[in-house]
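Appendix B. One record, verbatim.
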Amino acid sequence: MDINWASTQIVKNLDRHEKRDLLAWILTQSERTFQRAFEAGQYSSAIGSLKLIWEMTIKDSKEKDSRYHGNYKH
């Protein structure tokens, strides 16, 4: 499968796709990039892929309600 072709098709039809579908596709591509980079010994690229996945999934949910963790004052 040609990733560039798939990316172009998604961008063309951006208004037809739901954000969940696009996020799932981007996460899948990022995971594949991580796996290939790690196997090739390109650890900087692998870490970059993991950081992108973290930013798209966990980062915002972690910062939403952090008042109960750490040094919380009344």
